[in-house]
Amino acid sequence: MILLDGKATSQQIKAELKQQTDILIASGKRAPHLVAVLVGNNGASETYVAAKIKACEEVGFKSTLHRLPDTVSEQELLKLIQDMNSDEGLDGFIIQLPLPKHISEENILQAVDARKDVDGFHPQNVGRLTLGLPTFVSATPAGIMELLARYYVETAGKHCVVIGRSNIVGTPVSLLMSRNTQPGNATVTLCHSRTKNIEEIVRSADIVIAAIGKPEWVQGSWIKEGAVVIDVGITRMADASKKSGFRLAGDVHFESAAPRCSFITPVPGGVGPMTIVSLLKNTLKSYNKEVYP
Predict the structure, then answer these.
(1) 30-113 belongs to which CATH class?
(2) Which residue has the higher pLDDT, 138 or 237?
(3) Helix, coil or strand: residue 154
(4) Average pLDDT of span 52-68
(5) Residue 238: half-sphere exposure toward Cβ, Cα within 13 Å
(6) Region of residue 289 (phi > 0: left; psi between -120 and 50: alpha; otherwise: beta)
(7) Enzyme catalytic residues
């Protein structure tokens, strides 16, 4: 069993991005600029945004954080987005989700200029992904594909079962895994909460990508010998033995699944760090106008 170490791999990618940024600055150009918008004080969102800002600093990117109270109106947030869309010194920005209930996530995400949508959530970028055109792929699916590539995991002709159909992970990664690419060229089954005989389907999988948001839901007995497991889930679970009072668990029961796997991602330290570096890679793509010349 080999651990797909997202933490170590992300450090390698950050070193590559730092080298590219240093070359840009040495040639007299400005650094790529990523902006994060944080509405309210959701604890998980605070953690994610802090990690993104730290990663920007590590690779030499400029980063800006806009903090807004949870009482901000939708119109005020839309005005900020409009200003960022027209700011030529800004390459990409993210609106950290979730948003307060009085703000429509759909309205907000559609207001983001597709050329600066480094989260890859805008319908235009999702459409380009569906058609196999150059685009900003949402960061978690992009990170998964990068991790598979860096570990030379064979995916062609394999049966890949994706558990979860969200627009952020499950649906886009199912498209990427079916593409005529490497990694890719898999036969994909997309499962969700209404799928019948899900255990039986998972047992037939050469590759399992679990993104259903239910801690330790996928049991080791479901995993075929030699399968590859990508665990996207991360949930805080009470644990009195820990100083913090909790532990982080994935969607897969790691202890029972790992001995059966050829490759598996740990939680934490697997998909999470890859998500952040994929966001940075998208920002550099935007800076270099690789998607929208």
Answers:
(1) alpha beta
(2) 138
(3) coil
(4) 97
(5) 1
(6) left
(7) 52, 96, 119
The CATH superfamily holding the domain 139-273 is: NAD(P)-binding Rossmann-like Domain (3.40.50.720)
Q: Structure pTM?
A: 0.95
Mean pLDDT of 153-182: 97
Between vectors from CA 216 to CA 210 and to CA 219, what angle results, nearest 5°? 80
Q: What is the DSSP string of 83-140?
A: HHHT-TT--EEEEPSPPPTTS-HHHHHHHS-GGG-TT--SHHHHHHHHTT-S----HH
Give the tens place of pLDDT for each residue, 76-102: 999 999 999 999 999 999 999 999 999
Task: Give residues with Cβ within 8 angstroms of 207, minimum separation 6.
Answer: 153, 155, 158, 159, 160, 161, 177, 186, 227, 228, 229, 230
DSSP string, 217-232: -B-GGGSPTTEEEEE-
Q: Which residues pair with 210 in a beta bridge?
A: 163, 231
| Residue 207 DSSP one-character state | E
Q: Note whether 198 and 243 are within 8 A (CB).
A: no
Structural tokens at position 230: 């990508």
Whether the CB-CB separation of 127 and 157 falls below 8 Å is answered with no
